[in-house]
Write a structure and sequence with these properties.
amino acid binding; binds arginine; L-arginine/glycine Amidinotransferase, Chain A; 15 strands; 3-stranded mixed beta sheet; N(G),N(G)-dimethylarginine dimethylaminohydrolase; dimethylargininase activity; alpha/beta; hydrolase
Length: 277
């Protein structure tokens, strides 16, 4: 694998709100198809502009959330721990992700039957530490198994607000020991665990969290988010990062934004190690 950050995306051709599996989704509030495709293309162009190489997964009719590639798997070096989705509406994505990853050089590993795990949506490396969200989608047993599989120190944190149902909607590692977060998505104990594990935290307000400020794509020192996060962008600049915004309103209608639309193929852990170097 080369050194440029490598990201998997899936074109938004078949994206839409066809079911409701989180509080953001309402079939009566459809995404504008044209606009969604434009926003997706703009995100891809921006990521390429800041140095990422993008690979594409083929979109499939009837799988509107396949566009959210963050959930396909958790990538660790040449290994992919495949997702098993909590909701059957998304389970059809699993064999497609399995096939793509296996045919692109990854060793695909599956969790035992009955375990739910939603990939890099819920499992984020911050340096060598694996921050693992559980309860709403991934389950706590899966997160322990994933930690064992990749021999990493896991900090399981319970997600307590249904709006922030995946860890990547309320937390984004920037580098080893450094992350963006929305404390309101965790309970006291989870907040304490994150504070201990990640000494440098940039806090996002409830209002900007609602604009998916935490759902950021980190490419080196570049941080890409949805629009509507000006305070986070100021804080990122002060911390030495270069923030970028691109409108993703149509994906927010499904409960997703920039990070959800991407999967780091060179490893989530690579993303935050490289920044620390
Ligand atoms: N509608 C999708 C779901 O509810 C959105 C997934 C967003 N992905 C993420 N990594 N947060 O599953």
């Amino acid at each position: 694998m080369n050194n440029a950050p490598h990201i998997l995306m899936c074109p938004a051709d078949h994206y839409g709100i066809e079911y409701e599996i989180n509080p953001w989704m309402s079939r009566s509030r459809q995404a504008d198809r044209e606009l969604a495709q434009q926003q997706w293309r703009d995100l891809k162009a921006l990521l390429e502009q800041v140095g990422a190489t993008i690979s594409l997964l083929e979109p499939v009719a009837g799988l509107p959330d396949l566009v959210f590639t963050a959930n396909a798997a958790m990538i660790y070096r040449d290994r992919a721990i495949l997702a098993h989705f909590r909701h059957e509406q998304r389970q059809g994505e699993e064999p497609l992700c399995d096939r793509w990853l296996s045919s692109h050089g990854f060793r695909v590993e599956k969790l035992p039957d009955g375990r739910y795990f939603e990939g890099a949506g819920d499992a984020l490396f911050c340096g060598a530490t694996l921050l693992a969200g559980y309860r709403i989608r991934s389950d706590i047993h899966s997160q322990q198994l994933v930690g064992k599989l990749v021999d990493s120190h896991v900090i399981p944190v319970e997600l307590v607000d249904n709006h922030y149902y995946h860890l990547d909607t309320c937390c984004c590692p920037l580098a080893a020991g450094e992350a963006i977060w929305f404390p309101g998505a965790f309970d006291d104990y989870g907040r304490q665990a994150i504070r201990q594990a990640v000494p440098k935290l940039i806090e996002v307000s409830a209002e900007e969290a609602h604009s998916f400020a935490c759902n950021a794509v980190v490419v080196g020192k570049h941080v890409v988010t949805n629009t509507g996060c000006p305070q986070l962008h100021r804080n990122l600049r002060a911390a030495g990062y270069t923030p970028h915004e691109t409108p993703l309103s149509e994906f927010v209608k499904a409960g997703g934004s920039a990070k959800c639309l991407t999967l780091r193929l060179d490893g989530e852990e690579a993303a935050s190690w490289k920044n620390a170097a």
